[in-house]
User: Which sequence fits this backbone?
């Protein structure tokens, strides 16, 4: 009979690197997203359309979506155990658990709507038109909500 060893949560250092990655990519996404949404600012700051602003935004979004995947691939049992342990802390850290769930749901919404926007031709050809029409609106308001949540939390 083999004895099951308890799964240790992610080391604090790994958790901090993951969090730092989210902070860095979110900051870049917020700055480039504002420049995309406010073309007058973009024209003043970078001199016109500047395709690289959109490109940086798209690749930063991809990096942000990739961070939890890397954590899951490197240490799957530890990452899942950490997520489950932190999400269950209702009495001690109710706000932390809410933050974790909100972050996870927001990341999923950003990833789906971001890919619909990034691959617009594919989306229009393979998804209902309302998905392509709704994605920019949902993406924008989710960004607004996430920014406000970060300011409040």
Assistant:
């Amino acid at each position: 009979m083999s004895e099951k060893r308890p799964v240790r949560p992610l080391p604090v250092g790994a958790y901090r690197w993951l969090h730092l990655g989210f902070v860095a990519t979110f900051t870049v996404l917020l700055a480039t997203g504002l420049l995309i949404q406010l073309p007058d600012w973009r024209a003043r700051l970078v001199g016109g359309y500047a395709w690289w602003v959109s490109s940086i935004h798209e690749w930063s979004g991809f990096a942000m979506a990739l961070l939890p995947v890397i954590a899951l691939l490197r240490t799957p049992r530890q990452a899942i155990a950490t997520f489950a342990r932190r999400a269950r802390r209702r009495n001690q850290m109710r706000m932390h658990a809410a933050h974790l769930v909100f972050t996870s749901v927001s990341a999923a919404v950003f990833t789906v709507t971001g890919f619909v926007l990034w691959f617009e031709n594919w989306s229009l050809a393979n998804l209902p038109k309302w998905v392509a029409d709704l994605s920019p609106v949902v993406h924008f308001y989710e960004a607004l909500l996430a920014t406000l949540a970060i300011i409040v939390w």
